[in-house]
Amino acid sequence: YDAKRTGASVVTFDPDRHGDTQGLLSTVTELRHAITAGQLRVHFQPQLHTGDGTLAGVEALVRWQHPVRGLLAPAQFLPLAETHGLMDAVTREVLRQSVAQQALWRRRGLLVRVSVNLSAGTLLDVSLPAMVAALLAHHEVPATSLVLEVTETALLREPDRSLAVVEALRALGVQGSIDDFGTGYSSLTQLRQLPVSELKLDRSFTADLLADPRAAAIIAHTIGLAHALRLRVVAEGVEDEATLAALTALGCDETQGFLHARPLPAPEFEAWCAARRGTAPGAPGALVRSG
Ligand code: C2E
Ligand code: MG
Ligand code: MG
Ligand code: MG
């Protein structure tokens, strides 16, 4: 987890607290409690079509509203969840909140795709597809509007087992996405058999696009190959107009980043949609009806 990736509205990591065993143990106990007590919050970051700037989807990103320490970023507690067997519980909670929120939006006319991140361990959980199917059925959300993001390293850790889970999800109609593409050691050639529909260009490439001709060449090549494999390409970490223009020129399908919006709590995301509706006819908020 890259601390630099965290949003601005989070408190800093407290090494003292984690340096001592007592602090660590109490944090694990707190996290276990937090999951059931509703302290995990999901924020949503918009993904926009490069062509017309309309809303394509949102990525759900977890935060921990800690009673004392404030809003914590994923990098501050997901490693702990991972090492203490709490990752599946976190994932289920994020999925539950994301699908429930999506159902509310759909009822109000905002038909938006929602992407949820899966950890490597979750990808080996053979009970995940049935859980996802039940959740979607309960909320009457179509499977095709849910995207599950996995990293290439997670996919390649235990390829056979994770492929079975991805295929079962695909059979439901859920879309797969390869997150942080370019940071692992896999190539698109290795990934060509995977039943996924989206590839996310890692922020490190996006950030270097304008300054480094090699990053630009890699992005151009990746987009070309992805399109040949019928994959949608989403660039993450887009922070300025010039980068957006360059990605658009390269044929990137969608962009996500602070340029458009930071990850936002649902009400703030809805306000963001409404504000765009006010300034740009046909913009994402145009889909939102009041009430
Ligand atoms: P990710 O899936 O690659 O998510 C994108 C991260 O980049 C988010 O950080 C987001 O806030 C940040 N970001 C987005 N646009 C920009 C930008 O323009 N500039 C910069 N500097 N950063 C940007 P966040 O929310 O701190 O999440 C970090 C990582 O934690 C995620 O990376 C993902 O790997 C993991 N994560 C977050 N939520 C979950 C979850 O519910 N489950 C699992 N398993 N992992 C999660
Ligand atoms: Mg992601
Ligand atoms: Mg990513
Ligand atoms: Mg990333």
Automatic annotation (TrEMBL):
This is Bifunctional diguanylate cyclase/phosphodiesterase. Signal peptide: none annotated. Residues 24-277 form the EAL domain. It comes from Kineococcus halophytocola.
